[in-house]
Write a structure and sequence with these properties.
Helices cover 60% and strands 0% of the residues. By secondary structure, it is an all-alpha fold. It has one domain. The model has no long low-confidence stretch (mean pLDDT 83).
């Protein structure tokens, strides 16, 4: 059993799992991975945002430490996280579409 490190931010465990699921598509479903690669990420703008940088760092740590996937590429995590953040929508009751997947 892996112990998931606690985090103190708005990045939820669900968001990290969504990013993990996206990363796994690279090896398990290349067709879906190619679709993820086509999504807009606004990577440059997100790099300038400290909250976005923290989210990326926490996702990378979660995937490497909690999930044991040490061979992942940071750029791939950034791609998936960006695709999720940029392409998600928030409903009137503040539920993010990213949390639904």
């Amino acid at each position: 059993r892996k112990r998931i490190p606690s985090v103190q931010s708005d990045t939820t465990l669900y968001e990290k799992i969504i990013v993990l699921r996206g990363i796994l598509q690279k090896s398990r479903n290349p067709s879906d991975w190619n679709k993820i690669q086509q999504l807009q990420t606004h990577s440059d703008a997100r790099q300038e945002n400290p909250v976005s940088s923290l989210m990326l760092e926490q996702c990378i740590t979660f995937i490497r430490v909690a999930c044991g996937l040490t061979d992942l590429v940071d750029k791939d995590v950034d791609q998936v996280l960006g695709a999720v953040v940029v392409n998600a929508f928030v409903s009137d009751d503040s539920v993010s579409s990213a949390d639904l997947f």
